[in-house]
């Protein structure tokens, strides 16, 4: 089976960290009671509907991935049952610029969200449909020394997350994945 990818950028705020503390999209209506920063356009997950898709047709510069072509010195994986997080140690910092971002962002980790079937799993939706798998590439602003200090700042531009939705294409079988 071949996976097709659809990606967009999302600037993350403190609201995203609520997911890591057990406050999920199930009760996100209560997020505004926790912090004003969790209300309105800064809230995650993002439901992309017809109007949001029209807005996404506005031309934006491409992302610039700096040093993303080097191999890591080490890799650490953690599966907590909610997500699989992968952290890498590199000799050089991986950075993300442009693509609508106003700052330089340093790579921290990537993690996945998945569901129990082929029709759910992603946090974000497109036209009310979820994907079976979503990957988040997490970056923090170069103004900070690490992801923890970026989160603690509670600044709306402290963290940038590139979300990638995966979709199953049953018409293009990959024998290597079927073993």
From TrEMBL:
Pfam family, one: Carb_anhydrase
CDD domains assigned to the protein according to its UniProt record, in alphabetical order: alpha_CA
Presence of keyword Metal-binding: yes
Location of the Alpha-carbonic anhydrase domain: 16-179
TM segment ranges: none
PROSITE patterns, per database record: ALPHA_CA_2
Superkingdom field: Eukaryota
Listed SMART domains: Carb_anhydrase (SM01057)
Gene Ontology MF, one: zinc ion binding
UniProt-listed Enzyme Commission number(s): 4.2.1.1
Keyword Lyase among record annotations: yes
Catalyzed reactions: hydrogencarbonate + H(+) = CO2 + H2O
Keywords in alphabetical order: Lyase, Metal-binding, Zinc
PANTHER family, per database record: CARBONIC ANHYDRASE (PTHR18952:SF265)
Family: Belongs to the alpha-carbonic anhydrase family.
UniProt name for this protein: carbonic anhydrase
Lineage, broadest ranks: Eukaryota, Metazoa, Ecdysozoa, Arthropoda, Myriapoda
